[in-house]
Specification:
Elements: E1 5-9, H1 15-25, E2 30-33, E3 45-48, E4 64-67, H2 73-76, E5 87-88, H3 93-111, H4 114-122, E6 138-142, H5 146-157, E7 161-166, E8 175-179, H6 184-189, E9 193-196, H7 210-215, E10 220-224, H8 233-242, E11 245-250, E12 270-272, H9 282-298
Parallel strand pairs: 1-2, 1-3, 3-4, 4-5, 6-7, 6-9, 7-8, 9-10, 10-11, 11-12
Helix pairs in contact: 1-9, 3-5
Bound molecules: NADP nicotinamide-adenine-dinucleotide phosphate.
The site of NADP nicotinamide-adenine-dinucleotide phosphate (NAP) has 29 residues, from helix 5 and strand 7.
Length: 312
Amino acid sequence: MAPLTLAFRSTSDHAEKWGAALAKLVPDLVFVPWQDVSDPAAIDAALCWRPPEGWLASLPNLRLVHSLGAGVDHVLADRRYPAHVPLVRLVDPLMTRAMTEFVAFQVLRLHLKEPAYRRQQRDRLWQQHFPPSAADRRVGILGVGEMGGAVAASLVALGFDVAGWSRTPKDQPGVACFAGDAALPDFLARSEILVCLLPLTPATEGILSAACFAQMPRGAGIINVGRGRHLVERDLLAALDSGQLSEAVLDVFPTEPLPEDHPFWTHDRIVVTPHVAALTNPATASLVVAENLRRLARGEPWPDRVDIASGY
Ligand SMILES: NC(=O)c1ccc[n+]([C@@H]2O[C@H](COP(=O)([O-])OP(=O)(O)OC[C@H]3O[C@@H](n4cnc5c(N)ncnc54)[C@H](OP(=O)(O)O)[C@@H]3O)[C@@H](O)[C@H]2O)c1
């Protein structure tokens, strides 16, 4: 196999760790951090997170773009993305596992009224709330793909009454399936805790809006682990003010890091986490990337190739 040259570009992932991990797995690989690319024509593949507009288009012989995350909105935001180059996303079982832990933890927090007890403790208020049993708590997952499907299965295992919404119909044990735009109102009407695990595409941007919240049971909670732009921020604040929503857990934001003066930081009913639901870990993700590079070398297709037209 001819040696491959891989350009790496990210300001939030460690080039050194990635270079060392991939060197062990793909011995002939030439790993080039983006600052050291002296011959753009020599680059076969790019491994990146939020590449700046036009950078990928400046690599004339590119044959693969690999995302450093499960989502690819950060790549497709580049209006000059070379559409003929295959785009592959990162599907790492350990990231999926991390996501199931994060979401199960947050669903249990909302289900057991933990945020209310934190507020009560601050106010020295002794007041008991009796939650319904998990079997009577209806949780809805927007997006039942790689991550949403695993999250749904873990919530079913905890005993929750789980539904999922996707573009195409699913048949997952214990999960009520809702598919397509026409099924969204019925899905929302039963979602007391709503988890967003959609990819960010033109069809899903702004889906967590006033119209969505109004269709949910009064006092529902939301957990956004998809992307910041799924949420209409002012609509969330209004829904929390009015009591239509009771709590929100937000892991992703349109601008990251979340600006210091953002009202979410100090909001009583919002939990902010710094995009940590499922972090990319080079130790395990490099195994996935290495296999996808071998596929490139062998001319084989990639199971996790993105459909650029649908944006995920
Ligand atoms: N916070 C974090 O740390 C973190 C970490 C990793 C990922 N994420 C986010 O999680 C997202 C999901 O990851 P994944 O690996 O589970 O993606 P995935 O396997 O591609 O699944 C996406 C799901 O969303 C559904 N969907 C897409 N567009 C839709 C639409 N217009 N209407 C209804 N359903 C739609 C898909 O439906 P079909 O099954 O019918 O195609 C699929 O079920 C990523 O894109 C990323 O934004 C966040």
